[in-house]
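Allow me, if you will, to draw on your knowledge of protein folds for a short while. I have a record of one protein: its chain in single-letter code and its fold written as discrete structure tokens. I should value your view on which stretches of the chain appear to form regular backbone elements. Thank you for your consideration; the sequence and its tokens are set out here:
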Amino acid sequence: MEKYDIIIIGAGPAGLTAGLYAGRQGKKTLVIDKNISGGAGRQVPAMENYPGFELIAGVSLIEKMKDQCVKNSDLHEFETIKSIEKIEDDNYNFKIITNKEDYNTKALILATGSTFRHLNVEGEKEFLGKGVAYCATCDGMFFKGKKVAMVGGGNSALQEAIYLYNIGCDVTIIHRRDKFRGDAFLQQKIKDKGINVIYNSNVKKIEGKNVVESITIVDNENNETKLNLSAVFIAIGSVPQTELAESLDVELDEDNYIKTDKSQRTNLRNVYASGDITGGVKQWVVACSEGAIAALSAYDDLER
């Protein structure tokens, strides 16, 4: 059984930063992710607000962070956590069982992030991968020159709508409110590019034969409109992945995010959390900050 000082679950911006900082403190550190490192960060088409870069794609920044992390910590991708157990040991506090190996660790940092929120409407599941998508940078090129809808009104929806427009899609944004929640500069870009927006409306149904061919939307006055198009991209928020936290009895807030103090400590000794899993401001730079703080807090507590 492999033994570590600190194990970090999740290799998104928060987890990779935590791995960098924990390893640099001389602690034997492992970062585990059930998928490829980067998480949703790989799907950000372009960022203009990350310090040090006027413009950088999410996948490019992730690769730079990954290179830094693996110089200081072990990184295991495509390894799924099956369970975490508290153990009675003079030196180690947790046993982690994965689909590949068992580990003991003194401290645990949860950086499991969040998953895409679904519309939960007729046709969404049926046409997944056939015109329904949650990642414009992953699937957008398949619909170049075609009519598509982007559902949502936050930063992710606006960024991806701009990306789709830039690659040649005919984009219409559908938002359930009367104004966007995204950053002002993104809203201005939407206006400057003349991207069509339908406010105060929800998607009711997604239809087609073998692939998406149309959607039905309904406005606040219950009027229905059918739009003929080839794809529906959905960016309406996220759901925190707290299953592992719950199994340990880590305290969650009313929205199911992990509660932490300003040092990223949870209610459990030697358990920390960072990134989107903690709620709050969901920005890349915030996730990195919380990852660094969690790693330094774990180091300080282990040294006491």
Observations:
- The chain has a mean pLDDT of 94.
- The first strand starts at residue 2 and ends at 9.
- DSSP finds seven helices and 17 strands in the chain.
- The radius of gyration is 21 Å.
